[in-house]
Amino acid sequence: MELAIKNPIALTTQNFLKPKLKPKVKSLRVFSVKCKASLSSVDGAATGVLERPWKTSDARLVLEDGSVWRAKSFGARGTQVGEVVFNTSLTGYQEILTDPSYAGQFVLMTNPHIGNTGVNFDDEESRQCFLAGLVIRSLSISTSNWRCTKALGDYLLERNIMGIYDVDTRAITCRLRQDGSLVGVLTTEESKTDEELLEMSRSWDIVGIDLISGVTCTAPYEWVDKTDPEWDFNCEGRGEIYRVIAYDFGIKHNILRRLSSYGCKITVVPSSWPASETLKMKPDGVLFSNGPGDPSAVPYAVKTVKELLGKVPVFGICMGHQLLGQALGGKTFKMKFGHHGGNHPVHNLVANRVEISAQNHNYAVDPASLPEGVEVTHINLNDGSCAGLAFPVLNVMSLQYHPEASPGPHDSDSVFGEFIELMKKVKQKA
Predict the structure, then answer these.
(1) What 3-state DSSP class applies to 177?
(2) Catalytic member of 253, 321, 402, 410
(3) Which one is catalytic: 318, 378, 410, 418?
(4) Which terminus of the chain is more solvent-facing, meaning fewer CB atoms within 10 Å of its CB: N or C?
(5) Taking a C-beta distance cutoff of 8 angstroms, is the pair 367, 324 a contact?
(6) 125 and 12: one domain?
(7) Which residues form the Carbamoyl-phosphate synthase small subunit N-terminal domain (predicted)?
C-alpha cells in the first residue's frame, strides 16, 4: 500500500514587530510525501490490516493464582513453565542468567532497566543459561559498555531462553511478596488459551524435584583459572597449595576462581561422585557448592556429605550449606519467596560485623532442628533466618549465600581465607 500527498506551501516572510502587516509571499514550493506500509498476513495471504511500525504485545505470563500479564517477547519463542522469583540486584544480569541455581525458575528483575550494558563472555558463571526465562520492565534499545560483545536479546535467542518486557514487574513483585513464589507459564503462542496455560501452571511443581542432576558436570575435571589480576583483591599472603575436591551441584565459575586465587588446586566432581572415591584422592578439604531446587529431593547428596563429615574439612555454600544442615541432623524448609539479590545484610556473629551479601535460594536451614554443638555463625538481618553454620568438632563451615558475589559485593570474600585456615589447622595436626 502506498499513500502520496502533494501539498503546496507558501513560504512567507512576516514582520513580527509589526503584526498588523500582511505577510508577503516570497516563493512557492511543492513537496510530496510517500508512505509505505506492509500488510500483515496469515500463511502468506494478506489480511488487509496494516502492521504497526512498533512491537506490540505478543506474549503472556499466566500465574497459578489466575492472573494474566500481557507483555512483549524477546529472545526465544514458545511456551515454558517455571517458578517465578524476583531478584533485587541493580547490576549483574548476565551473572544471574548463567547461575545454575536458577534452574526451573523465571527470574523477575526489580531493576526496571535491563540490557543497557549488553553481554560479554567474561562474565558468564557457567557453561550455559539454566533459568526458565527472564521477566523485565524495560528492555534497553541500545548498549553502552566497552566490554559489550552482543545485545541481550540476541544472547537469549542463541541460548533458547525466553524473555518478556513491558510488563508491570512492580505489581508482580508485590504479589510474590504477599502470596509467595508462584508457578507461571510464559508463552508466545496465541493458539493456547488462558485456561490451558493456567492448568499447566497448576499441574507443575518445583518442590521435591531433583534439579541438581540437570546442571552438574558429567565427569571430574581439573580447574586451573584464577581471578583475572584486573579484578583480583585480597590477593596477598598466598602460601601453601591445598588440594580441594569441589562437588558440582551447580557451581559458579567465580567460586572456583576465588578458591584458586587463594592457593587451592581444585578437582571438580559430579554431584553423584561417591565419598569413597573422594577420600581416595586424599584432599585437604571438600567444597559442597551452590545449586538449584529442593535439598530434600537429593538424598544421595546428603548421604555423600554424611560420609565425609569428620574425615576431611568441609565448606558448604548455598545448596551445600543446606545439605550440611540435613547431614548434621537438621531440617530445611521452603521460604515464602526466598532471597534473591545482591543487597542482603547479614550479621557475621563471629566477627561481629554486618556484611552486604549476594543471595539466591528458596530454602533455608531450621536452626532449632540442629543438634547441640552446631553453631549459627551468620544471620540474615532481613528476616532472621540462618545464613551460616559451623561445627568445629567435625571441621565444618558453611554459608547460605554466595561469598564470591560476582559482580559484587565482596564483603564476605574473606571466608575463602577462613577455609584455607581450617585446612591448614587440620593438616598441621595430622
Answers:
(1) helix
(2) 402
(3) 318
(4) C
(5) no
(6) no
(7) 57-187
250 within 8 A of 298, measured Cβ to Cβ: no
CA distance 405 to 95: 10
Residue 384 cell numbers, joined: 532472621
* Residue 140 is assigned to a structural domain of this protein: yes
- Residue 83 catalytic? no
Q: Are 100 and 145 in a shared domain? A: yes
Q: Could you report the per-residue pLDDT of 103-141, keeping only the tens digit for each?
A: 999 999 999 999 999 999 889 999 999 999 999 999 998
CA neighbours closer than 13 Å in the CB half-sphere of residue 420 = 20
* 19 pLDDT tier (thresholds 50, 70, 90): very low
Q: Do 323 and 373 sit in the same domain of this protein? A: yes
Residues 20-48 have a mean pLDDT of 53
Question: What domain count does the chain have?
Answer: 3
Task: List the domain range (segments joined by +) for residue 9.
Answer: 2-36
Here the cell at position 123 is: 562474565
Among residues 158, 174, 202, the one where a domain terminates is 202
Query: pLDDT at residue 150 above 90?
Result: yes
Whether residue 412 contacts residue 399, with contact meaning beta carbons closer than 8 Å, is answered with yes
Mean pLDDT score, 398-426: 93
Which pLDDT does position 39 carry in this prediction? 57
**Of 173, 202, 231, at which residue does a domain stop?**
202
| 338/415 same-domain check | yes
Active-site residue identified among 361, 404, 410, 418:
404
Share of the chain above pLDDT 90, in %: 80
Residue 353 has pLDDT above 70, yes or no: yes
Do 423 and 346 share a domain, yes or no?
yes
Task: Report the distance separating Cα 354 and Cα 346, nearest Å.
Answer: 6
If you compute the radius of gyration of the chain from its CA atoms, what whole number of angstroms results? 28
Residue corresponding to grid cell 581416595: 280
Do 198 and 216 fall within a single domain? no
In a domain, 43, yes or no: no
Q: Following DSSP, what letter does each residue of 326-376 receive, concatenated?
A: HHTT-EEEEEEEEEEEEEEEEEETTTTEEEEEEEEEEEEEEGGGSPTTPEE
pLDDT at 1: 44
Residue whose cell numbers read 575436591: 245
The reply to whether omega before 112 is within 30° of 0 (cis) is no
Q: Are residues 149 and 261 in the same domain?
A: no
Residue 47 lies in a domain: no
Instruction: Give the model's confidence band at 194: pLDDT under 50 very low, under 70 low, under 90 confident, else very high.
Output: very high
Clarify whether residues 16 and 100 are in a common domain: no
Q: Is 190 part of the annotated catalytic residue set?
A: no
Q: How far apart are CA 73 and CA 161, in angstroms?
A: 11
| pLDDT confidence of residue 400 | 98
C-alpha cell belonging to residue 387: 545464613
